[in-house]
Specification:
The chain is an alpha+beta fold and 471 residues long. The protein is built from 16 helices and 15 strands. It binds glycine (GLY) and manganese (II) ion (MN) (2 copies). The site of glycine (GLY) has 6 residues, from loops.
């Protein structure tokens, strides 16, 4: 079943038509999409699992190495480039359909091998046509761009097309029903992962045991891959903690932020925080309820026509209110948020777009995706980490993931400067060092009827989590 990971042909022809329609209003020439090559781990034949570039997947579908694609903006002609498998390739890696069949399967034509692509691109350039390409984030892609276009490799990103970036962001930002179905199938895998986590997390169990279990579940479904390296730690205060060497102890909070990929490589991205003992302590419960209230506030505001920066600020205000109740903050809530005082405990943004990439389209530039022409990114600590700020539109899929953390070095640093001392009760904060971190994350579709949390519900309230851990 060589084509099992592809949508039907019209998906690709319609996506390309939408792209050329937008591009055609502002530019002419050729769109060049280089695919990924294999990436060796420690010698050329021992490679990382292959993963195609997401824009390539979006417009041409094929999840295999050493191919490229072009779209002629003026004629709409779409071509797939690369060579047919050799006998050696077939012996070692198995038979694959011909390039002609592969091109037809995504509604394109075969243009020839990569050398032929170079001739095609050179001819276009010498006849005064522009080559539009996206930023290359891999050295191998820069090299392919250099080879094909004749631009010097180190310079190839100087020729990135801002017009193409904007057009790709516009098309990929709106998820169709079949894309949402894919995301929900990735979320089915997440559901299985968190069910296992709730059954397994106990005092005496190592983080690595649980990490391996979750990895196995992701490996046995969808594309077999995680959508990003799993964060699983009793030290959830380290936002992207990829160390799994601890043994869980009674009283610890375990933070798991993980995602899987559907068969067609769409992402899920879920975070839950569990009490290793099976029940939250009084302190844990109070702050957990605060993060949950912030998350529900953020979700409720993820509606078409509203700016996500406002959802972020509303979630931050909820966090401040909870920290005031816990005796950790004080003063006027809105003033504290405006001063960025909450960022001592909540130093990241509320969420990001999600789709074929877990941070969708981030290779095109965070600001191009999350701010567009609409807003300037803030330079304030905390707020500057907000990846998505712009006005939301129906069809956006995004994450809502507030958190609350006690990061000893950050606390020490702020305290030494008496930073935001009007709003932070530093004498109380020192008593919470060692608490760890809490984050709660779901994936949300913006619909005409309002925000819809995607996927089968995964236990999230204090009661649901404690019940699931008791089963
Ligand atoms: N990759 C971690 C997150 O964005 O949730
Ligand atoms: Mn996450
Ligand atoms: Mn996320």
């Amino acid at each position: 079943m060589p084509f099992r990971t592809l949508f039907d042909i019209p998906t690709y022809t319609q996506r390309r038509a939408a792209l050329t329609d937008i591009m055609g209003r502002a530019a002419s020439g050729i769109i060049l999409l280089p695919g990924h090559t294999e990436s060796p781990v420690n010698y050329p034949h021992n490679c990382y699992d292959f993963r195609q570039d997401s824009s390539f997947l979006y417009f041409f579908g094929h999840d295999t190495p050493n191919i490229a694609a072009t779209i002629d903006i003026d004629s709409g002609e779409a071509k797939l480039w690369g060579r047919d498998a050799s006998m050696d390739d077939i012996i070692w890696s198995g038979p694959v359909p011909s390039m002609v069949e592969r091109a037809e399967r995504v509604g394109a034509a075969w243009g020839g091998d990569i050398a032929a692509l170079k001739t095609y691109a050179n001819k276009a350039v010498s006849s005064g046509r522009t080559i539009h390409h996206l930023p290359a984030y891999r050295a191998e892609t820069r090299e392919m761009l250099a080879r094909v276009t004749g631009f010097a490799s180190a310079d190839s990103n100087h020729h990135v097309s801002q017009t193409l970036i904007r057009a790709v962001v516009e098309v990929r930002s709106i998820k169709t029903a079949e894309e949402v179905t894919e995301i929900e199938s990735a979320l089915d895998i997440s559901h299985a992962m968190y069910s296992a986590a709730l059954r397994t997390a106990r005092p005496g169990i190592s983080e690595r045991t649980l990490y391996g279990m979750l990895r196995g579940i992701a490996a046995s479904a969808g594309s077999g891959a995680h959508s990003f390296p799993t964060i699983l730690s009793v030290h959830g205060e380290t936002l992207h903690n990829h160390n799994h060497d601890n043994i869980m102890q009674a009283g610890d909070l375990l933070l798991i932020d993980s995602g899987a990929e559907s068969a067609k490589r769409y992402a899920s991205d879920i975070t839950r925080t569990l009490p290793v003992s099976g029940t939250f302590s009084g302190r844990q419960k109070a702050l957990y309820e605060t993060v949950l209230a912030a998350q529900l506030t953020g979700i409720a505001q993820a509606a078409a026509g509203r700016r996500f920066v406002d959802a972020h600020l509303a979630a931050a205000a909820t966090i401040v209110d909870g920290l005031k109740d816990a005796g950790l903050m004080r003063g006027n809530t809105q003033d504290a948020v405006a001063a960025g005082a909450h960022a001592l405990f909540y130093p990241h943004g509320l969420g990001h777009m999600m789709g074929l990439d877990v941070h969708d389209m981030e290779s095109l530039g965070e600001d191009n995706v999350g701010y567009a022409d609409e807003l300037e990114r803030s330079g304030q600590f905390g707020l500057r980490g907000l990846r998505l700020a712009r006005t939301l539109r129906e069809g956006f899929v995004l994450t809502v993931e507030p958190g609350l953390y006690f990061i000893p070095d950050l606390i020490k640093s702020w305290q030494s400067e008496a930073r935001c001392a009007d709003f932070i009760n530093y004498s109380a904060v020192s008593d919470w060092i060692g608490f760890g971190g809490i984050r709660i994350e779901d994936d949300v579709l913006v619909t005409a009827e309002g925000p819809r949390v995607l996927g089968k519900p995964i236990p999230k309230t204090v009661t649901e989590i404690e019940e699931a851990m008791r089963d």
